[in-house]
TrEMBL record:
Residues 62-245 form the IclR-ED domain. InterPro entries: GAF-like_dom_sf, HTH_MetabolicPath_Reg, Tscrpt_reg_IclR_C, Tscrpt_reg_IclR_N, WH-like_DNA-bd_sf, WH_DNA-bd_sf. This is IclR family transcriptional regulator. PANTHER family: HELIX-TURN-HELIX TRANSCRIPTIONAL REGULATOR, ICLR FAMILY, HTH-TYPE TRANSCRIPTIONAL REPRESSOR ALLR. Pfam families: HTH_IclR, IclR_C. The keyword Manganese does not apply. Coiled coil: none annotated. It comes from the Bacteria. Residues 2-61 form the HTH iclR-type domain.
Length: 253
């Protein structure tokens, strides 16, 4: 039975390359045409493949509907949380997860620092969008016209001397973040707090969330915090792999 399932599932990536006839499917699977036909009929009955008028087969609409439903039901917070906890246990600092929704960047998860000096960020609270490292990553991934339109309508409060001052400066920072694939906030919101962040990407490569490690400079200097960047990026990549389905749950990272 497992061999039958394996063969049936092997048909789907073949058809993802384009329509194929019975002979092509049989050849790819290394089976007789009668076996390939039984597999195709079963997949057809479930709407996963469709037989065209030219007798070739292509992927069925039901497959796309299932994929869309699965994507809509994915909970990035549930997937990311164990990874955030492990990173927090390794470094000891505050770890955040954020998403971009309706013009705001919101924290949707947080694992507190083990040190006495802690951040007062809260889950569900919007971040300082023009300076936060997670915001830079999420906005840098937007199409350029959308980035420019958003930058033009934002206000640019000077929280500290290191805050982003205006739209041109913000757009330059977003372009830099887009190119390097990570972001920082080194005293831009609070002079005493530094942050380094990495993007979490979906199966299409787009940024779906961002995660960060933050710490006050009385606990760790900005230079010391930046040494955690490779670990932060590995954690973000592990979450991306699980979220997009590239890395099955439980596989080594």
């Amino acid at each position: 039975m497992s061999q039958t399932v394996d063969r049936a599932l092997s048909i789907l990536p073949l058809l993802a390359e384009g329509p194929a006839d019975l002979g092509q499917v049989a050849d790819r699977l290394g089976v007789h045409k009668s076996t390939a036909l039984r597999l195709l009929r079963t997949l057809h009955e479930h709407g996963l493949v469709y037989r065209q008028s030219d007798q070739r087969y292509r992927l069925g609409a039901r497959l796309f509907a299932l994929a869309q439903e699965a994507m809509e039901n994915l909970d990035i917070r549930e997937i990311a949380h164990p990874h955030l906890v492990r990173l927090n246990e390794a470094c000891g600092h505050t770890v955040h997860l954020a998403v971009y929704e309706e013009g705001e960047v919101l924290y949707i998860d947080k694992v507190d620092s083990r040190y006495p000096v802690r951040m007062y960020s809260r889950i569900g609270k919007p971040v300082a969008i023009t300076v936060a490292a997670v915001a830079k990553l999420l906005l840098a991934d937007l199409p350029e016209p959308e980035r420019r339109a958003l930058a033009d309508k934002l206000e640019y409060p000077l929280y500290t001397p290191r805050s982003t001052a205006n739209a041109p400066a913000f757009l330059r920072e977003l372009e830099k973040v887009r190119e390097q694939g990570w972001a920082t906030d080194l005293g831009g919101h609070e002079e005493s707090i530094n942050c380094v962040a990495a993007p979490i990407r979906g199966a299409d490569g787009r940024v779906v969330a961002a995660m960060s490690v933050s710490a006050p400079n009385v606990v760790v200097t900005a230079e010391e915090l930046l040494t955690l960047l490779p670990q932060v990026r590995r954690t973000a990549d592990a979450i991306s792999g699980e979220y997009s389905g590239r890395t099955p749950v439980g596989d080594p990272e």
